[in-house]
Design brief:
This protein is mainly beta and about 120 residues long. About 0% of the residues lie in helices and about 60% in strands. Strands 2, 4, 5, 6, 9, 10 and 11 form a 7-stranded mixed β-sheet that branches. Strands 1-3-8-7 form a 4-stranded antiparallel β-sheet, with no helix packed on it.
Length: about 120
């Protein structure tokens, strides 16, 4: 079994920063793409940022220039550095990852449990 565990959420004032972490554990051969999504109350879950195993990144327009996704392949961990936070960034943030448990595995998408980020005025 594979688990993704997020940490780093919390309450921050507008303009502040937070760093989210997402550690994968279990029977892992390798991890392909990793990413962060968020879901605000009454809204659909949306992509925030994604990163390939080679380090190529993709961001939602709303966070470009403020958020940075990164990963440490040796630790099976990804990070989301969030700067210049705005009240509209308030949401539950979920990480995901495409995990291979063996070399011939096509990969399975796993999700973390979510961590709350609240940005106050």
């Amino acid at each position: 079994q594979v688990q993704l565990v997020e940490s780093g959420g919390g309450l921050v004032q507008s303009g502040g920063s937070l760093r989210l972490s997402c550690a994968a554990s279990g029977s892992i051969f390798s991890i392909n793409a990793m990413g962060w999504f968020r879901q605000a109350p009454g809204k659909q879950r949306e992509l925030v940022a994604a990163i390939t195993v080679g380090g190529m990144t993709n961001y939602a327009d709303s966070v470009k220039g403020r958020f940075t996704i990164s990963r440490d392949n040796a630790k099976n961990t990804q990070y989301l550095q969030m700067n210049s936070l705005k009240p509209e960034d308030t949401a539950v943030y979920y990480c995901n990852a495409i995990v291979l448990v063996q070399a011939t595995d096509p990969g399975t998408l796993y999700w973390g449990q979510g961590t709350q980020v609240t940005v106050s005025l």
